[in-house]
Amino acid sequence: MHGLAKWTWALAATMIGQTLAGPIASKHGPIRVHPGGPRDIVVTKDDTLNGTFIGGTVKVDGLLQSASAAGTGQLPLAIVNNMAGSTDGQINCYVAGQDTSGNVVLLASDGTWYYPPGTTSGVPVVIDADLALPLGAEGSTTTITLPDYIVSGRVYIADGTLQFFVVTNGAGGAALVQPSPVNPSDPNAAVNWGFVELTNTADGGLYANISYVDFVGIILGMSLLGTDGSTQTALGLGADAVAQICAALVSQTASDGYPWSSLCMTDSSGNYLRALAPYDFIADNNGDAFSDYFTDYINSVWSTFSSSPLTVDTQTDAGEVACTTGGSDTLTCGNDNRGYAQPSAGDIFGCNTGPFALQSGDNAVHYAVVPRLCAAFNRGTLLLSGGDVQPGLPATDYYTTAPSNYYSKFVHDNEVDGKGYAFSYDDVNPAGENESGTVSSPIAQTLTITVGGPSS
Predict the structure, then answer these.
(1) Which fold has domain 11-240+439-451?
(2) Where would one find the signal peptide in this protein (predicted)?
(3) 376-424 pLDDT tens trace
(4) CA–CA separation, 438 vs 453, rounded Å?
(5) CATH superfamily, with its number, for domain 295-402
(6) DSSP 350
(7) What's the pTM?
């Protein structure tokens, strides 16, 4: 889901990121945003979408046709505005993704797909098109229909106006540059925004999720109505969740001295805009942050499972596998093609680097152990009674001991129904539990998105 491996288009952009990193991180306090221009954008793979840029046309059976001639797969989005005090047109919706041919698309204000032009520019170029879809005032519902199937889509909601850009991807193509939650100099940094992720295809149907893996911004929830009348919900966070999460993170810094409070971003008046996940803070602001946070815990885990086994339930045909360190620096699991070195804090928070990085050739057991082991570290359950079986403990035991991923804890504390990813493998749970915040159906009729908290 993330990785944040950067490539930059100019030394200036790199230096901007480096200049911000040290002083901000050393304060152990919320980061105040200061929006810039295109040259202040730091391009990361998480904030870009690659595809074919064909400037308003699409190939069908080898012939260029207008974009409106392509396919079917319309999906109504009913967007409920619960933002307190919001007026007509204050809240805007944007949709970005790929069509089923891999072309990058955005939803234009006239309800058709807009195909942004490509570019060879190394500096992001703003997309000059009418992409804002304004919502009605507080209490209203606005229906927006996606004109066709969409892959890797995002439905953005913003209290204000967002800008999108295109930039060369350095490999002979172009990329769509989307708003960045982690860069305090991003042109969109002062806007309160967030998104719902979705993919809707003819073969797979609709899959949508609320993800807090990277950050928490504007408050969103959703429900999915199927053509058979069935309903699935992921209610999201409470209306004041960002302020509550940031207050808890500030308190946690006061308690243990780690830079949890620096995960929060504020506007020029000091109002909280968003909270970043710790992995994103480490990767984008301070590589040394939290560096020793898990050290003692990791050593205790390695010692505990030196001779007595850690049992990992793969929840697949492979069943349960026994893992031990045997007094070495490597945790080895039965039938796994390779072992696990001791992870760093960044490895644990991100779940996709170090021992948790998946490689081509890894077998099914390895693919099953990685998410379950990383989830256990984030939730601090490995040394609890019953923690020698993963996953095994209920959600009530998650984050009950230090060290834990307190960002994830505070996010879940503020979720109305406990659903919504707060780290990459938050869908790892014992059978019968689901904390992932996903909805999916092959017979989707309407996806409803609530803005500003659940409807009363």
Answers:
(1) Thaumatin (2.60.110)
(2) 1-21
(3) 999 999 999 999 999 999 999 999 999 999 999 999 999 999 888 899 9
(4) 17
(5) Beta-1,3-glucanase, C-terminal domain (3.30.920.50)
(6) H
(7) 0.88
